[in-house]
Amino acid sequence: MELLIIKAVTAVVIVITLSIIAEKVSAKLSGILSGLPLGTMVVLIFFAIEHGINYSVEASLYNIHGLFALLSFIIGYYISTFYKRKFDIFVSIIVSFVFYLVAAFILAHVPIHVVFTPIAVITIITLVTIYFAKIPDNAKKINTKITFKDLVLRTILTVVIFLLVTSIPKIAPVNIAGIFSTFPSMMFPLLLIVHFNHSGNQARTILKNTPSGLSSIVIFCVSVHFTYPMLGVFLGTLVSFITCIIYIVIQLKLLDYFGVNVNAKQKKSDFKTS
Question: Which residue range(s) make up the domain with 72?
Answer without folding.
Answer: 2-270
